[in-house]
Design brief:
The chain is built from eight helices and no strands. With 225 residues, the chain is mainly α. The chain has one domain. α3 crosses α7, α5 packs across α8 and α6 runs antiparallel to α7. The chain starts with 19 loop residues before the first helix and ends in an 8-residue tail after the last helix. It comes from Streptomyces typhae.
């Protein structure tokens, strides 16, 4: 009797099987961080002790030419800039005939930003007045979500294993989150802990969104040899 070959996973899956366990643990930890910080700073309108370790967010902390760089980075988190990035990413997915990847890019970004909007209303932390809800940072969540989505698709396309794929996802998340987070704090739009909350929101939402896309599309099913 010969053993049946292991069934192959459909290549259109957006959550590589090699990353499911590691990203599930990462998403759970990220969600916990979002909740803990939210509870600690609920209803606050001043920077906390952790925020002051980095910078005093009550005044702009950079001047030209770095302020111009911060404004340029911030633009990509604004509606117009964010839309351009999403359109470019979706176009790339469609050129590669990865329609489910295009769905992940859009859904991941929308759900991450939507989650920050919901959490903001629940936490009620403000900056520069009672009308400016700050926790978590939606700009940081968007940039991180888009980077994580693209990294997931790259991991699947390159066939990376658990260690390499997880490293790629984390590197992309750190690069995008750090760049946008720096811009937000530098422009006094957010406290540093707001940035951390936005970063963790994306890390919690995007893997769950990828799993859901696969589930709905049926890519989690295995082909028969």
């Amino acid at each position: 009797m010969t053993e049946r070959p292991e069934p192959a996973v459909l290549p259109s899956s957006v959550l590589p099987p090699s990353l499911r366990a590691s990203l599930a643990a990462l998403a759970a930890l990220a969600a916990l961080v979002v909740v803990v910080i939210g509870v600690l700073y609920a209803g606050h309108s001043e920077p906390g002790r952790v925020d002051r370790w980095f910078v005093d967010p009550t005044a702009d902390s950079v001047r030209p030419p770095w302020r111009n760089v911060a404004l340029a980075v911030d633009f990509w988190g604004e509606p117009a800039g964010a839309a351009l990035l999403v359109v470019a990413a979706v176009a790339g997915c469609l050129l590669l005939r990865h329609r489910r990847g295009a769905v992940l890019v859009v859904a991941g970004a929308v759900l991450a930003v939507g989650a920050t909007t919901l959490v903001k209303s629940l936490v009620g932390r403000t900056i520069h007045g009672p009308d400016n809800l700050s926790y978590p940072s939606g700009h940081t969540a968007f940039a991180t979500a888009l980077a994580v989505a693209v990294a997931l698709l790259a991991t699947g396309r390159l066939g990376l294993g658990t260690a390499a794929g997880t490293a790629l996802v984390l590197a992309a998340a750190l690069a995008a989150g750090a760049a946008m987070g720096w811009a937000q704090v530098s422009l006094s739009a957010h406290y540093p802990t707001d940035v951390l909350g936005g970063w963790c929101t994306a890390l919690a939402v995007v893997p769950a969104t990828a799993w859901l896309v696969d589930r709905v599309a049926g890519t989690g099913r295995r082909e028969r040899p």
